[in-house]
Design goal:
Layout (H helix, E strand, L loop, with lengths): L9 E5 L1 H15 L2 E5 L1 H6 L2 H9 L5 E4 L2 H9 L6 E3 L8 H7 L2 E4 L2 H13 L4 E6 L14 H10 L3 E7 L9 H17 L8 E3 L3 H6 L7 E2 L22 E13 L4 E2 L5 E2 L4 E6 L17 E4 L2 E6 L7 E4 L10 E5 L5 H8 L3 H6 L6 E4 L1
Parallel strand pairs: 1-18, 2-3, 2-9, 3-4, 4-5, 5-6, 6-7, 7-8
Antiparallel strand pairs: 1-10, 10-13, 10-17, 11-12, 13-16, 14-15, 15-16
Helix pairs in contact: 5-6
Length: 365
């Protein structure tokens, strides 16, 4: 008799209908076309699987961080245009031209190199002009832009079809973000107005939810697609996409005065029923949750984490319950939101989602 694989010890359930719902919210909130940001494995949700689903939704672009991500999407059979969100390295550019991916341009040197490669391949490469309105990570500053754009448009093999910038603090600094929007509008007007570009884009999730996006006709939702609003007031509009789960592997009763986990950072003060759960920081469940009030859900009830998170296992206080080995455990999801976990770990939801490691099986529902 063939051996049947055992079920996973740690897995992430990905709700694809919730993903589609959140995409609809991004469209309704902005009124523009959508570049779905799927970098970092679609924020840990599974790059190829998420790209195939979103490709059915008539989006304008996929936004990726590098050519490796672009290649994986293209090789999965998805035909949606792919946009590279950051500056490219010289050795990446020949593949970008050959594949027809859309880069953003932050320097004339980049543009000239792309022009040479496009001419050599007898191609016309569509590019977007990147403007630095305050992020400090890439793009042209406003000084001298009309002349720079004229030079870009004169380069053979290059078509400047879009212009974009990035918001560094739309979820933290409203006054600065409003000034960024104003600066971006002024820049576009100085370049001849919105009609000069097919695509105009500035807003990430926080930008499209919380601000007037005029004159942008393209938005770049990332985190909100996966069910988390960077601006708390909009959270009720979104649906949870990833639920991280594991199983109880062992339940024991320990006496008072018994240490739990490495360093004996927690010692029982009473007889305690302890459940061991098969997940740890090797799966992406943060070690920084140790001693910071983290909880999990088992049998629809919250239970506290005991001691330090280890590489492969955690311990939970289930005293007074009927929890038993084999029970499912929700680490985050609809009942414990990932941003709550992030706050207790002293980090952000983006890092938690993208930090879920490959040994956690993704199950797309």
């Amino acid at each position: 008799m063939p051996i049947q694989p055992s079920p996973p010890r740690a897995w992430a359930e990905i709700d694809l209908e919730a993903l589609r719902h959140n995409l609809r919210v991004s469209r309704e909130s902005s009124g523009g076309s959508v570049m779905a940001v799927v970098k970092a494995g679609a924020y840990g949700h599974g790059l190829e699987e998420i790209a195939r689903i979103l490709a059915e939704e008539n989006i304008a672009f996929f936004g990726v961080a590098n050519v490796g991500e672009a290649r994986r999407i293209a090789d999965s059979g998805v035909a949606t245009p792919i946009y590279l969100l950051g500056a490219t390295w010289s050795e990446e550019r020949a593949e970008i031209v050959a594949r027809g991916w859309t880069p953003c341009i932050s320097s004339l040197d980049e543009a000239r190199h792309f022009s040479e490669l496009a001419q050599a391949s007898n191609k016309c490469l569509r590019v977007h002009l990147a403007i630095d309105t305050g992020m400090g990570r890439g793009g042209f500053v406003a000084r001298g832009l009309p002349e720079i754009l004229s030079e870009l448009e004169a380069l053979p093999g290059i078509e400047v079809e879009g212009i974009g910038s990035h918001l560094p603090s739309a979820d933290e600094d409203e006054a600065f973000t409003c000034s960024q929007f104003a600066s971006f509008r002024e820049t576009i007007n100085s370049l001849g107005g919105p009609a000069r570009f097919k695509w105009i884009h500035l807003s990430n999730s926080a930008g499209l939810l919380g601000y007037d996006n005029h004159p942008c006709n393209l938005v770049r939702p990332g985190l909100m697609l996966y069910g988390i609003s960077p601006i708390p007031g909009f959270q009720d509009k979104l649906q949870n996409v990833m639920t991280l789960k594991s199983r109880v592997t062992l339940v024991r009763t320990l006496p008072a005065g018994h240490g739990i986990s490495y360093g004996r950072a927690f010692v029982t003060t009473r007889e305690t029923r302890v459940a061991t759960v098969g997940i740890g920081y090797g799966d992406g469940y943060p070690r920084h949750l140790s001693g910071n009030g983290a909880e999990v859900v088992i049998r629809d009830q919250r239970f506290p984490l005991l001691g330090r998170v280890t590489m492969d296992q955690i311990m939970i206080d289930v005293t007074g319950s009927e929890v038993t080995a084999g029970d499912e455990v929700e680490l985050f999801g609809p009942r414990i939101r990932v941003d709550e976990v992030a706050a207790k770990a002293g980090t952000i939801a983006w890092e938690i989602l993208t930090g879920i490691t490959p040994r956690v099986v993704r199950i797309h529902l």
